[in-house]
Structure formats: structure tokens, C-alpha cells
Amino acid sequence: MPELPEVEALALDLRGRLRDRAITKVHLAAFSALKTYDPPISALDGTLVDDVTRHGKFLDISASGLHLVMHLARAGWVRWRDEVPTLPPKPSTKSPMAARIVLDTPDGQEAPSGLDVTEAGTRKSLAIYVVKDPREVEGIARLGPDPLDPAFTIDVLRRILADAGRAQVKGVLRHQGTIAGIGNAYSDELLHAARMSPFKPASSLSETEVETLYAAIGDVLGAALARASGKPAADLKGEKKANLAVHGRTGETCPVCGDTVREVSFADSSLQYCATCQTGGRPLADRRMSRLLK
């Protein structure tokens, strides 16, 4: 799933490509992806792109007073095309295509350029909104503070953890209404950097642990954003995967201590961690496997 660093870098890349370009047409290939009806998606035809920004993990293309907002969910992405086909994409349950944004035709080019919005897999969660104000999107209106905003101070984190009570710290970090932009991958990564168990109760952190976690949030997300910034959209997924220390690396060697990276599985997701670095050498119970063994 694209998270804060990738969506921020994607917005930066698209800003350079789209700003001051006209949107001539938006073709929907997956009609279920469009979550709004007023304004209609056709209202974007002929608008001029003013900016491309990010709200948490939401991508926001603002054009002539309207906002084309996208949440890419687990398997969505945006692909730049120097030339788009003449025929619009056909709706198909077997195709990853969700929408195509057609731009004006650049000077010296015979065909228009544009963006393909795609979603891999059969579980379709990608969402597209056309609104006059991004806060009309419920997910954006509910977002917590952005962890890379200067206003996200250690006092803000301290209050979030205290308010979360006995909730597990990984879940607190992932909850978009608490902190915006951190998902499954980077919560694993920054907890590994902080040498902290993902199951640790949020309100139980000592002052030193709060300081360590706050530093890890800034360091891990800041480094990921620095690596991703300036890269084209096509390279961002590979950049993220290549630099993860534990997430998605079950069975591999921890780059810090050399122990084996372990996994805890849930119904529709999993987390990865290093027992030596994070839990004093004690493996965490894999609750799904425990249920199967009963």
C-alpha cells in the first residue's frame, strides 16, 4: 500500500507533469471506484490543473476549483503515459484499469498524454472522489496530524499515546484518525528502528521510549521521503521495497542484529519484526496459527 513517503513523492512527480495542463477527459473503467456524484466527473473536462498535493495517504489533483481526490488503497497506483490510446479503456473485471485522466496534447506531439489509475488484484478498494473541498471526503476530514508537519511535536505524540490507553502501539500508529499517512509497512519499520514491540500498550511507554519513538517516526519517514523525492512514479514502489528493514522480509536476516525476521499473521494482513531488536528475544504469538493448532 502506498504510504506517506510514496504518496508525497508521487504528488511531487505529478505536480511537475500536470501543473498548468488541461484535463480534457476522465474515463472511468471501474465505475464502483467513483464514490461521489455531485459534481459529476464530467465537470473536470476542460479544467486547468493548479496543483497536486497529499492529505495523509490521499492524492489530491486540484483543477479550476475542483478536486480529484484518490485513495489508492492496498494495490492501487498511478501510471504516467506520454501518449494515451485513442479509444477509452473498456470496463472489465479482469483489467487493473480503474480510470484514465486524459490531458491536452503537448506541442510537437500527435497524441495526448495522461495518467492511468490502476488497481491490481481482485479485492477492489481504490476510491475516487470529485469534490469542491477535499474535506468533503470523510477519510480526509477524519485525518489525524501529519507526522512530518512541524506542528507534530513530541507533546502531540505524548498526548496521542496517553489517550490511546492500552491499545497496541502499532495499531495506534496505523490509525489514520490518530496519525495520518503511516500504514502497515512504515509502522513495522519505525517500531523496528525504535526497538519496540508492536504489541506494547501505547500508554505504557516511558518518557525515554516516547522520545525514541518520536525520533524514529521523523527519521524513518524523513529518510524514506528523501530517497523517494525526485523519482518518477514508476520507480517509487521499487524504491520503497528495496529499503525496508523488516516489513515484507519474513525469514530474512535483520540488517541490525542478524536475527531472523519473524511474522505475526492476522485475518487480512501481517506484521514483521525482529525478536532480538524489539522483544528481548521472545517471539510474539502468531494468533492465527494459535487458533489453527487448538
From TrEMBL:
Cofactors required: Zn(2+)
The FPG-type domain, residue ranges: 245-279
InterPro entries registered for this protein in UniProt: FPG_cat, FPG_N, H2TH_FPG, Ribosomal_uS13-like_H2TH, Znf_DNA_glyclase/AP_lyase, Znf_FPG/IleRS
Record flagged with keyword Cell wall biogenesis/degradation: no
Domain (Formamidopyrimidine-DNA glycosylase catalytic): residue spans on this chain: 2-93
Reactions catalysed: Hydrolysis of DNA containing ring-opened 7-methylguanine residues, releasing 2,6-diamino-4-hydroxy-5-(N-methyl)formamidopyrimidine
PANTHER family: FORMAMIDOPYRIMIDINE-DNA GLYCOSYLASE (PTHR22993)
Designated name of the protein: Fpg/Nei family DNA glycosylase
